[in-house]
UniProtKB/TrEMBL annotation, chain A:
Pfam families: SDH_alpha
Species: Schleiferilactobacillus perolens DSM 12744
This protein's pathway: Carbohydrate biosynthesis; gluconeogenesis
GO biological process: gluconeogenesis
Catalyses which reaction(s): L-serine = pyruvate + NH4(+)
Protein name: L-serine dehydratase
Stored InterPro entries: Fe-S_L-Ser (IPR051318), Ser_deHydtase-like_asu (IPR005130), Ser_deHydtase_asu (IPR004642)
Domain Serine dehydratase-like alpha subunit: from-to ranges: 17-273
Length: 289, 221
């Protein structure tokens, strides 16, 4: 097993790909066969694709605070007159779609968490046709993301309540960036650089959900995570390198998470959650309690 | 080597779940489900004590709904989950939530107390992110139960010879026991054994359940 990105990179040399290594380790650690494990991941892929589709069609959250904006992005894309590129905007639209479905208590696949579920699904669904990915290659994309995510989870964390949004959307974005580099034919070292650059841009991001709901700013933070993943992947594929090594970056994220006051760790006691508008919304949704 | 809390790729890619929060909804449902399986019965009264982030945001995240859904035996992807409070009410179960301001070791902590007749079970669970959970206390006894290790939990009458009978079954099946915790606690509750083992073997659970004085046995992975 690998416990650092350095070990992940070194050990992956003995396998055809990071995804193949991840499947192999999963077989070793469980009673399941490789086929069963790939099948299970395929079911996760199907849920992701369904949640993107459902969100783009237009959904509203249980509270009414968020919704219908993936649909708006879809119209904007269809008009064809936009500032950034189509792949990045499709990833953004998809990410918003998944988190709007999440906010209406719909079915999603947590990657690594529900609050950050839009990032990986959003990026994958935006590139799979462009990269002519087969179903097996899409499943590999998820195993690659999971391998990098495991290292981040075990050395820092993946809960907003433990370490803020940097550990949720930040981790999701780093995982997506790494998987995207591999899917585009980049090296594992380039993928590791994409992880480092992503987390460095996410460091310090707080978790400040308005009214304690996974809606504002979470839905649009997923748009940030998806777009950053695309940018990081392109930077890494262009040969850009992180000055600070990736494992030291993950350790820095852990430290930042520990030093972060609890007001910024999913308690709704700071940041956007305590703005006058947020307090008014909270009152409107939950009453006086 | 770091403190390895996440073991499987499916801890990171997954679970498939009803939103909105993996730690506050899916993890909460899983804690409830584990407690349901350990108790092995429908309780008459449920009291849930919530700490820190759980205490402050439980309504917005559906933590209350998810824990009760789990305690009714629902999995995190069960479409009935959003209606669990009503289902509990219809079954005549008394449900109470108590947000606490005490400092605890982990921000997402829930202490669940179940009662039925003279039986009482008290379990503390934490949700560590991405829907993954740990059980840290059963009836006042500190334990570390991480999902991902094959684990058996038995609840049985507090009579001589139970430990010997249970370990005999594992010995006969050539299964090594990694850690074992035996607790006997508060009035009214029975004795509990938590056994982490090296391998899973089908059939052992049935053998455990058939032992005299055994009330319930469960297996987790």
């Amino acid at each position: 097993m690998f416990y650092t990105i350095k070990e992940l990179v070194e050990q992956s040399a003995d396998y055809p790909s990071v995804a193949a290594m991840m499947v192999h380790m999963e077989v070793e650690n469980t009673t399941r066969s490789a086929d069963q494990i790939r099948h299970l991941m395929g079911k996760n892929l199907d849920v992701m694709a369904r949640s993107v589709k459902e969100g783009i069609a237009g959904v509203k959250s249980v509270t009414g605070l968020t919704g219908m904006e993936a649909k708006k992005m879809d119209h904007y894309l269809a008009e064809g007159d936009f500032m950034s590129g189509r792949p990045i905007l499709e990833a953004v639209r998809n990410a918003i779609a998944v988190n709007e479905v999440n906010a209406k208590m719909g079915l999603i696949c947590a990657t690594p968490t529900a609050g950050s579920a839009g990032v990986l699904a959003g990026v994958l669904l935006a590139v799979r046709d462009r990269l002519h990915m087969t179903r097996d290659q899409q499943i590999d994309f998820l195993f690659t993301a999971g391998a990098f995510g495991l290292v981040i989870a075990n050395n820092a964390g993946i809960a907003g309540a433990e370490g803020g949004c940097q550990e949720e959307v930040g981790s999701a974005s780093a995982m997506a960036a790494a998987a995207l580099v591999c899917a585009k034919g980049g090296t594992v070292v380039q993928a590791a650089n994409a992880v480092a650059m992503t987390l460095q841009n996410m460091l310090g991001l707080i978790c400040d959900p308005v009214a304690g709901l996974v809606e504002v700013p979470c839905v649009k933070r997923n748009a940030l995570g998806a777009s950053q993943a695309m940018i990081s992947a392109d930077m890494a594929l262009a040969g850009l390198k992180s000055v600070i090594p990736v494992d030291e970056t993950i350790e820095a994220m852990r430290r930042v998470g520990m030093q972060m006051p609890s007001a910024f760790k999913e308690t709704a006691e700071g940041g956007l959650a305590t703005t006058p508008t947020a307090l008014k919304l909270k009152q409107k949704i939950f009453g006086d309690q | 080597m770091p403190d390895v809390r996440f073991h499987s790729v499916f801890d990171i890619i997954g679970p498939v779940m009803v939103g909105p929060s993996s730690s506050h909804t899916a993890g909460a449902a899983r804690i409830g489900k584990v407690v349901h399986d350990i108790f092995g019965d429908t309780p008459e009264k449920i009291t849930v004590y919530l700490y820190e982030s759980f205490a402050k945001t439980y309504r917005g995240h559906g933590t209350d709904v998810a824990i009760i859904g789990g305690l009714l035996g629902m999995a995190p992807d069960d479409p009935r989950l959003p209606d669990s409070l009503k289902i509990a009410y219809d079954r005549g179960i008394t449900v109470g939530f108590v947000p606490k301001s005490d400092k605890v070791d982990h921000p997402n902590t829930a202490r669940i107390v179940l009662k039925k007749g003279d039986r009482k079970l008290e379990v503390t669970g934490v949700s560590i992110g991405g829907g993954n959970i740990q059980i840290t206390e059963i009836n006042g006894f500190k334990i570390t139960l991480s999902m991902g290790t094959p684990t058996y939990i038995t609840i049985h009458e507090d009579v001589p010879g139970m430990v010997a009978r249970v370990t005999h079954i594992f010995s006969e099946n050539n299964i090594n026991i990694g850690t074992m915790t035996v607790t006997r606690s508060a009035k009214g509750e029975k004795a509990i054994m938590v056994l982490e083992v090296d391998d899973y073997q089908p059939g052992i659970l049935d053998q455990l359940k058939q032992l005299p004085h055994m009330i319930n046995a469960t297996y987790f992975e």
